[in-house]
Amino acid sequence: MFSINRFFIKFSLAMLIAALLFGTAAAFAFLYPEHFNKWLPFQQMRPMHTSAALFWIISGAAACVCHFQSRHILDARALRQLLSAFKLTWMLVIMVVFACYCINDYGGREYWEFPPFLNLPLLAGWVLFAIVMLAIFKKSAPAYEWMWITGVIFFLITFTEQNLWHLSWFRESYIREVTVQWKANGSMVGAWNQMINGLSVFLIIRISGNKETAYSKMTFFLFFLGLFNLMFNWGHHVYNLPNANWMRGVAYGVSMTEWVILVILIRNFKRNIQEGRKLKHSLSYRFISSAQTWILANLGLALLMSIPAINRYTHGTHITVAHAMGTTIGINTMILLAAVGYILHADDMSDRSVRTIKRSLWFANASLWVFWSALVVAGILKGYLIINHPEMSFTDVMQHVTPFILIMAISGILLIPSLGLIAFIFIRIPAESGKQKDKASNAAERDELPVYAE
């Protein structure tokens, strides 16, 4: 693996640590503004948290895809240079984003609240990434490469769509602008889910040694379902806006269903894997197993949220946050840590480090369950009080909800020494220790991975 990609991966892990720190600070700034707003104001901590989380997921997925696709461009200098330009651009712009936050320079929209001009270099960098991915892609590629390429392309589309508010025609109507914003953000999640789904399938193949999975009907069904999902399930994001009922029906029918197939794939992987191979890749195996548990939990929550009658109560409450956090941390982060651990050869670390990661993973899951449950209860209570007791002021409603937000904030603190420690250990793995193993891995992947079907 090229050294810059290893640095890009570790930069992404730093974004994970930053998201944990800023998220905890934002929670306490929200609960105790009189103590925190002087030094750590909520209006500053929240965009820092959301941007760090987004950049961890997107950059981490892109870095892992770059690594696993590097075997296709070992002899293509121009493509390597384009990838390097993409990574350097993204890392530089991300650092500028947080510098702008530090001086209270905003101007964007939800989740992308930094000055809008920074979207241009981000877009240009991603175009370079897309060019490389398209240059090495073949129609006979395995399912996981189809997931990667569609995820990259649709992120480019939805990122552009998310910035349509710069056109005056969209800003002329508040409903029009909000509809496009919510639709774009919902579809964008589906785009990076495609990349992460592809990583999970790739890891399953590499760890289990079952090459047939790459071209199986079930895996390709997962690909098409995920693609259909990112194109059409965004409807449940705009239930509360004046839209046609058929959009709500389509959204309900396709919302989050790709997780069902992914659970089946992972379950078959766990059932059929040989014990020796499981132990050889024990850390990646544990992270993938954790993701399966959170897929099931968030699948149930997402399906309930997609029912219009229930969505009336949950939309805009802490249940939405619970779904977002459960997906971001429980699913996406676990799969990305599995991929990063595999890339960095984490299983070859000292026994002490491996044990520390296993204990930290258990502690992270326990803390996340408390975190997630507190948000769900807070969301149910808030939605019930707002809808059924309109006479209550928002302040009175939040007084009933605050104890559960406090539980969430405390459990969020516990995520820092667990997930944060895992990320820190991965960051500390020296680059030199992986150079020879990276060469061996590239050679092994050429021999062991399924070749393009003719």
Structure description:
With 454 residues, this protein is mainly alpha-helical. The protein contains 19 helices and no strands. The chain has helices spanning 3-31, 33-36, 42-69, 77-102, 119-136, 143-162, 168-171, 174-208, 217-232, 245-254, 258-272, 275-280, 282-305, 308-314, 318-343, 351-388, 394-415, 419-428, 432-448. α6 runs parallel beside α9. It comes from Pararcticibacter amylolyticus. GO terms for molecular function: cytochrome-c oxidase activity; heme binding. Keywords: Membrane, Transmembrane, Transmembrane helix.
What's this entry about, in short?
The protein has helices at residues 3-31, 33-36, 42-69, 77-102, 119-136, 143-162, 168-171, 174-208, 217-232, 245-254, 258-272, 275-280, 282-305, 308-314, 318-343, 351-388, 394-415, 419-428, 432-448. By secondary structure, it is mainly alpha-helical.
Task: Reconstruct the topology from this structure.
Layout: H1 3-31, H2 33-36, H3 42-69, H4 77-102, H5 119-136, H6 143-162, H7 168-171, H8 174-208, H9 217-232, H10 245-254, H11 258-272, H12 275-280, H13 282-305, H14 308-314, H15 318-343, H16 351-388, H17 394-415, H18 419-428, H19 432-448
